[in-house]
Amino acid sequence: MTHHSITQQYNRRQLLALAAGAVAAGPLAARAQAGFATRPVRIVVPFAAGGATDVIARVLGEHMGKRFGQPVVVDNKPGAAGLIAGEMVVKSPQDGMTVLLGTTSSMLTNKYLYKKTSYDPLTDMT
H-helix or E-strand containing 77? Predict the structure, then answer.
């Protein structure tokens, strides 16, 4: 066994231990916030239906719905390079029931592409 293979095996073990710890801690975090979703959750996607982000949102929504025991609605709001969807999320009640599933390019670069936007994703979406 060479030094290189020992290093690879050690890193693999660390990765497996980290993954096992994350999986074990997941149910504890979910149990601590068991009463989170008291009504339907809304995932806003800044792209048209049928794209990769939409598919990810729907799969994620299905799992979230099972976990929360509430329906999860995927709401596609394409246009204006994601500004329409972002503005919709910023104007929604700040209760955690509306989330934005976008990309870095659609959310952060708009601040530098457009002279004026109605929101700042770094400060208004926290």
Answer: none
